[in-house]
Amino acid sequence: MRAKRLLAAEQGAEKIAVEVKSFTKPSAISEFHTAVGQYLNYRRALRSQEPTRILYLAVPSQTYDEFFRLRFIEEGVKEYQLYLIVYDVENKRIVQWIK
């Protein structure tokens, strides 16, 4: 299953938007570049249309554990100020919220 969508929701009192990515292509770095570009564009659009809504990038837990923990990727997440949701694909649940 290939997940690529932007969802609007609420997390407690916070209004959020979630860009869901599955990272199923052979090149995780290529998918990361695409996801970051989309994230930055979505975040910019949200600032003008819904400035109180916070954007998250949702990634599978396996991708987070194996790829997002690489130093280069961790530095990119920090530099671009990406908020992450780590989700368990098999159990269909959120494992971690990272701000």
Distinctive features:
five-stranded mixed beta sheet, Trna Endonuclease, Chain: A, domain 1, 99 residues, alpha/beta
Question: Would you give an account of this structure?
Answer:
The chain has 99 residues and is of the alpha/beta class. It has a single domain (4-98), classed as 3-Layer(aba) Sandwich (Trna Endonuclease, Chain: A, domain 1), CATH 3.40.1350.10. The chain is built from 3 helices and 5 strands. A 5-stranded mixed β-sheet has the order 1-2-3-4-5. Strand 1 (4-11) and strand 2 (14-21) form a beta hairpin. The longest helix has 22 residues, at 28-49. It is globular and about 35 Å long. The N and C termini lie far apart (26 Å).
Task: Provide the fold topology.
Elements: E1 4-11, E2 14-21, H1 28-49, E3 54-60, H2 61-68, H3 71-79, E4 84-88, E5 93-98
Provide a brief overview of the structure:
By secondary structure, this protein is α/β, with parallel strands linked by helices.
Q: Largest sheet, order of strands side by side?
A: 1-2-3-4-5
User: What portion of residues is helical?
Assistant: 25-40%
By CATH, the architecture is named 3-Layer(aba) Sandwich
Largest sheet: 5 strands, mixed
Total strands: 5
What kind of oligomer do you see? single chain
- Structural class comes to alpha/beta
Highest-level CATH class: Alpha Beta
How many domains comprise the coordinates?
Answer: 1
Residue-averaged pLDDT: 89
Shape: globular
